[in-house]
Fold:
Amino acid sequence: MRTKRLWLAAVALVVLVALGALAWQRHQQRERELELLRGLWIGNLPALPSDPTNRVADDERAVALGQHLFFDTRLSVDGSVACATCHVPAQGFQDGLPLGQGVGTTARRTMPLAGVAYSPWFFWDGSKDSLWAQALGPLESVVEHGGTRMQYAHIIAQNYRAEYEALFGLLPDLSDATRFPPSAGPVDDAQARAAWEAMRPEDREAVTQIFVNIGKAIAAYERKLQPGASRFDTYVEALMNGDRAGMRAALTPTEQAGMRLFVGKAECINCHNGPLLTNNDFHNTGVPEVPGASLDMGRAQGVRLVLEDAFNCLSDFSDAEPEECGELRFIKADDHTLERQFKVPSLRNVAERAPYMHAGQFASLAEVLQHYNRAPDAPHGHSELRPLNLSQRELAELEAFLRSLSAPLNTPPELLEAPALPCLDCRPIGE
Amino acid sequence: MRSVMTAQTAPAPRSLFRWIVMGVVGMLLVLLVAFAAMLYRMNYVPADLDLSTTLPTAQGLFHVHYTPNQEPIAINKLHSWTIRVTDANGEPIADAVIGVDGDMPQHGHGLPTRPQVTRYLGNGEYLVEGMKFQMGGWWVVDFTIDAAGQHDTVRFNMLLK
Structure:
């Protein structure tokens, strides 16, 4: 009798301790989850950081000029390509293609632009360190806009003189065609390059300054492209307010399960952290090579390019003081881990922008998640992934969660379309 | 309780009952141990991690104290630290050559930047610029200190949110 009671008491005690531990662990987990989810909440997006390299970054006149330039196809070798050709506003400022298509085919996927101005690095390999320097790359790329800085300077002088001069001061007189030929620039095209090299150094400098200012105006416009609150953000807000009905209305149980995996077992949050769901850093995740393409070394190449870049933060064309160029001064440039690292993209609106990875290697979110789950070896360098051992059901839950991150941009609608006229006060296209 | 009383009247079921109870208790114990192991695995950061911001160097030659210029340290944000180096008696060290590096022991990658000591601020204090952490979790930051012909190292642990 007595032994029996003792046994029963022991059982009851063990059960109680187990239940207590379980409840405690659950509480701890919920607290930790809340903290992690709050970190991803769009309400925690800080004010847009200033861009000391670009004096007109927050000038509304530069935004207006930049918007015109962004949609102006005359800024290309044959009048067929504008920034908006690949960065399509109706598609979240990307094009839905594995590789960008300008006047030719690029080697990488077009990146979306919402929230881009929060990043210290641009392009998949971070080969540019300011938004304006980034904008200049495609303009002179032989497979993107395909034109030259001399050609673009003429377009500014002919079509945007007043708007340009209000921001950047008087344009030089470009009317002497022997000094300022129709097209010239340090580009791949041999003829344009020869014409550029024949120009006087001071004329080249003056033309390059106009080119740089084009980039700075476009950057001012791009800074306005901001992500909006998604159903996930509504959920976190309801969670913080203890509003259970609001939580249920925002995310389905499947999406909530996926969200817990995202911040927990699946470890997505390691890199996809902060309100933009990216650390804006570079990682090798073992993404496969593109068959037939030359090996892309990613960040290892990007650090070399940005250090050499004539338009980087420390260059004469930057408006920043050297001490404001911390990211460049303290860049990690000499490390084998940089091999085949690519930029971590924001996951906001991720479901709206298949295909995925830096060259569109994966057609669907399901394929991306399978890749992370398997964690294959990298084709070059070392993958940071470890197999996740997620079930098919868990992968489906994660995918459902990723789909809850879609939302219209938090950007004035008038900035999401081409301005009514190709420039602020001049002729429509074609005249 | 009543069924227990009934069971007591018959000797044979009594030992059976004991075995069942022992089995249940045993299973619960196993579950508890498994649960504890799971908890440990989930928080696989060493439980006794020293998070001090002041530490003696490995061989005790110097004492080092760090102060981040943003607190709490926000991830993905370039910032600087001030570190103070003294000798074992607390006297400031003015002429140290200091190296900085960081690592995530569980992830096999280090800092996204190459921080450097850029300035001596006086009173044994040095400015470390270029600090940045790209994810939350367990970080270590190592300083190597060379001063007056002596070399020593110190490792700080941090748990970032």
